[in-house]
Amino acid sequence: MNDKQARAGYAVPVGVGLAEYEIKKSRFHARAALAGSRDQALEVLQAARQAWPDARHHCWAYVIGNPRSPSAVASSDDGEPGGTAGRPILNVLQHKQVGDIMLVVSRYFGGVKLGAGGLVRAYSQAAQAAMEQLLLAQNQPQARCQLQGSYALEQPLRHWLQQHDGEVLEVDYSDVILCRVLLPDQYLGELQQFARLHGALLQISA
User: Fold this and answer.
1) Domain boundary at 100, 123, 139, which?
2) Whole-angstrom Cα distance, residue 132 to residue 76?
3) Which residues contact residue 136 at a Cβ distance below 8 angstroms, ignoring those fewer than 6 apart?
4) What is the structure's pLDDT at 5?
5) How many domains does the chain have?
6) Exposure string (b/e) for 165-193, b if CB count within 10 Å is 16 or more?
7) 26-35 pLDDT tens trace
């Protein structure tokens, strides 16, 4: 993956996607939600356990970070035969190319064994159904930049950043000022124009 792809935005969950799937008297309750860290993923798992306390299995998978290069990926079969639950759920997430997401499928056993292939299909269907109910938003990548200029630069810069969803992280004062800012990537071209207009030196972090 190149730098441009790494900095590209990616889809993330908004709210919670819930779905139910039933086959041969087994009921599968799926819950998909935002999880930007392992701790948040475990909170989604706990919410599923509380919602369906009598379920025999709470199988899950998560993808943390950009799905094209995630910082963490994990799954669990939670007592189901190996590879029949967590991996199918994870496959759905990876196919959808959604990041910062946890998906839990809680199963109530109906008394009829589904077999390995049946379990894979059932968990995949339940996960797919939850994803279809989930709202998504675009996670906008941010760039860290430094601007160096005269003291007259600071107030216009702060005003400009407020209008472009940016923020000042730090300002160093010496003979000149050095402003470290955070800005959505989409406004970098406009920031370059601003810097030229105000005679500031601009450095964009990789």
Assistant:
1) 139
2) 22
3) 11, 12, 13, 14, 98
4) 45
5) 2
6) ebeeeeeeeeeebbbbbebeeebeeebee
7) 999 999 999 9
